[in-house]
Design a protein that fits this description.
Blueprint: H1 2-25, H2 35-57, E1 61-74, E2 80-93, E3 99-108, E4 111-114, E5 121-123, E6 128-132, H3 143-151, E7 155-160, E8 165-169, E9 171-174
Parallel strand pairs: 1-9
Antiparallel strand pairs: 1-2, 2-6, 3-4, 3-5, 3-7, 7-8
């Protein structure tokens, strides 16, 4: 990343130096325009260059992962509740470039649990998406695994295309106080 910035700046400034040297050492130029024209041209080129480089390089998103334990009442003589931990992930793409998520993992110590079974997720610019694991084929944990994750202070790790990883804290909410 730093190498790319160095090349951008070196090409930009060497171009400016070449233009200045051409103006100073070329006697065939009789009319070079006013200072206002030159200032406006350099400002326009700089603004376009800045807009293009800013749009391509900035990825900014926010993630709100919540592990929530809900009690589902079951029919029967004594009231029986089944405790089900559910992972909900809210992802907010704050900038214009699309966000392409390659993998979502829950990480604690040296253990990695991959939660993304259905392939990559694409979130358009300035869009939000909620990922719920409620379908039958989705990734699930039971109460024992939930307690292990909570005790070990597990984190959510999102991997984007290009293998850049972002780590987020998971909020553990037990609505049943079990």
């Amino acid at each position: 990343m730093m190498f790319d910035k160095w090349w951008k700046y070196s090409i930009f400034y060497s171009g400016i130096i070449i233009v200045i040297l051409f103006i100073l050492f070329n006697n065939t130029i009789k009319e070079v325009g006013s200072w206002a024209d030159w200032f406006g041209a350099i400002g326009t080129i700089s603004a376009v260059w800045l807009a293009i480089s800013y749009r391509r390089t900035k990825i900014n998103f926010d993630v709100d992962p919540v592990f929530r334990v809900v009690a589902i009442p079951m029919p029967g003589e004594p009231p029986i509740n089944i405790l089900i931990p559910q992972l909900e992930i809210d992802i907010f793409n704050i900038n214009d470039p699309d966000l392409m998520i390659k993998n979502i993992e829950i990480v604690y110590h040296d253990t990695r649990l991959s939660t993304l079974n259905k392939g990559p997720i694409i979130i358009k610019g300035f869009e939000a998406k909620q990922i719920n694991f409620i379908e039958q084929d989705d990734w699930r944990v039971d109460m024992t695994q939930y307690n292990i994750l909570q005790e070990n202070n597990a984190h959510l790790e999102i991997t984007l295309f290009g293998d850049k990883k972002y780590r987020h804290d998971i909020k553990f909410i037990n609505e049943t106080s079990a």
